[in-house]
Every structure is written in structure tokens, then in C-alpha cells.
């Protein structure tokens, strides 16, 4: 028997990047990643956006309703996401990489490509479970050039074509 962190179910590399480079920054994280981020970044001044304590913490149910507006596939999802990034002054985002595939006219569609267009976000860390994006407007070009990685994370098979059309046309 051994003890340790199962790296395939937690955003360990993303947390290490945050610890090393993003102290005192406001970020967004997906709901399922918040508990690990609290545990791994407990001594930093980086508040976790949301986590599994949602039902017992004052204000979380209201926050969850707002978060759902940009997680549920809908015509307004991307607009809601962009508004949330502005409202909460998000400088980075830790998101789950899910095996779910979305298709439009038999072509795979990357929801991440819509939420994190490379003109506005830089991918700086990725593992099998999560990806860490930095909002370009919040960091210097020199910093981004040093840490940006390619190709960008995708929630579709890289071998399939990715449809990049205006979001609302997909509905």
C-alpha cells in the first residue's frame, strides 16, 4: 500500500504553476478542482473560486447559479463566460479536460476553443485531467512567451476537424 496524490484525478501540475508564479492573483477553477486547490495552495493568498463546500457556505448557492450560466451549453454561454471573467477580474482559469465530445454537422466542436480563444488566453500548463489558461491582458508578453505551451488543450480528438464558427450559429 502506498500513500499519495492520484495525479490523474487532480490538477497537480496546474497547482504547482500557480504556486510558483501566480501568488496574489484571482482565478477561476471548475467546481470539481476546488477542493484540491484549497488543499495544495492553502498557504497562498489565492482564493479558490468554487469548491465542493458549496451547499454549506453562505453565498455559494447564488454563485453556483451564476457559474451554471456559462457551463451549460447554450447560445448565451460564451457571453456569460466573458461577463464573468470581467466581473470577477479573473487572471487565470483551471479547467477540467473532459472526455465529452460535442459535434455540429458531424464535426467535433471544442468548447474550450470558444471559452479560451488564443487571442485572449494562453495555455501554460496541461496534464491528463486539467489545463491552466492565463488571460493575456493580465500578464506581460515576456512572461507569456516564456511559459505558453502549444498545441492548446482541446476537449476533442486532435485527429478530428474542429469547427470554429460563431458560437450562436451552433444552436
What does this molecule look like?
The chain is of the alpha+beta class and 171 residues long. Helices cover 29% and strands 15% of the residues. The protein is built from six helices and six strands, in the order αβαααβββαββα. The longest helix is centred in the middle third of the chain and has 11 residues, at 77-87. The N and C termini lie far apart (50 Å).
Key phrases:
171 residues, alpha+beta, 4-stranded mixed β-sheet, two-stranded antiparallel ribbon, 6 helices, 6 strands, globular
User: Within the largest sheet, what's the order of strands?
Assistant: 1-2-6-5
Rg, rounded, reads: 16 Å
The general outline is globular
Distance between the termini: 50 Å
Helical run tally: 6
Average pLDDT figure? 80
Give the ordered list of helices and strands: HEHHHEEEHEEH
Q: Could you estimate the helical fraction of the residues in percent?
A: 25-40%
- Main sheet? 4 strands, mixed
